[in-house]
Design a protein that fits this description.
The structure holds two protein chains of two kinds. Helix content of chain A is 77%, strand content 0%. Chain B has one domain: Fumarate reductase/succinate dehydrogenase, transmembrane subunit (3 helical TM bundles of succinate and fumarate reductases, Up-down Bundle), CATH 1.20.1300. Chain B is built from four helices and no strands. Classes of the chains: A mainly alpha, B mainly alpha.
Chain lengths: 124, 115
């Protein structure tokens, strides 16, 4: 085997295709949601425990930084949800062509970012 | 027929299927909660806790959370398998993740039945 074969690693020319971007974001958003589980459970607890903790939680969520964190988590959830549904459909043998894979990747990004924007508008 | 020598722990298919079944369950729960919130624009403490005072809803929520923890375990395990190679560190992370998920399970019961 010729060990000195040429390599094409022109980083300005090769790029991750759209389904690849959706895939790595699926992994990233999943990891993020896992790491934020204590925060999410704490919010659920505060919202249910008493009127006082409920009001305190709403007050904390008025803070612009909290809103940003919440929006980030909302995006992670929406992306993970949409990309996950896409994978379930692919398992059922839908969209198995290259064109289908690209089109559904666009839809995942469009729907998750769109709903995140709606949520952002509601928060601010 | 070819005699195949199968090695490994054989949990691949089970976990693959579990990842998808838990995902479907979580989608159903998500749609339910989203629908409930959208149909009640006057959402406040009373309506929110009213929903969770129902025993069926508490059980459904616990089922959702258990599905979430199982789903998270498989996902995190796959990520660790891909990026963490030294066996000692990998094992330590596995133990920490499992302990965390078990604690979240206890906490979930406390949240839902201790409110």
């Amino acid at each position: 085997m010729n060990t000195k074969r040429p390599k094409h690693l022109a980083l300005h020319q090769i790029k991750l295709p759209l389904p690849g971007i959706v895939s790595i974001l699926h992994r990233f958003s999943g990891a993020l949601l896992f790491l934020c589980l204590p925060l999410l459970l704490w919010m659920l607890q505060a919202s249910l425990r008493s009127v006082l903790t409920y009001a305190q939680l709403l007050e904390i969520l008025q803070n612009p930084f909290s809103k940003l964190v919440l929006l980030g988590l909302f995006w992670a959830f929406l992306h993970h949800l949409c990309a996950g549904i896409r994978y379930l459909l692919i398992d059922l043998r839908y969209f198995s062509t290259l064109a289908g894979a690209r089109l559904t990747s666009k839809w995942v990004l469009f729907v998750s970012l769109g709903l995140t924007m709606v949520m952002g508008l509601k928060l601010w | 027929m070819v005699d195949r020598i199968v090695t490994g722990a054989h949990y691949g298919l089970r976990d693959w299927l579990a990842q998808r079944l838990t995902a479907v369950l979580m989608v159903i729960y998500t749609l339910f909660i989203a629908g409930y919130v959208l149909l009640h624009p006057d959402m406040g403490y009373d309506r929110w806790t009213g929903l969770f005072s129902n025993q069926v809803m508490r059980s459904f929520t616990l089922l959702f959370l258990l599905a979430l923890y199982y789903h998270a375990w498989i996902g995190v395990r796959d990520i660790v398998m891909d990026y963490i190679k030294p066996a000692g560190i990998r094992l330590a992370i596995y133990v920490l993740v499992i302990l965390a998920l078990l604690l979240y399970t206890i906490w979930s019961v406390q949240i839902l039945w201790g409110m």
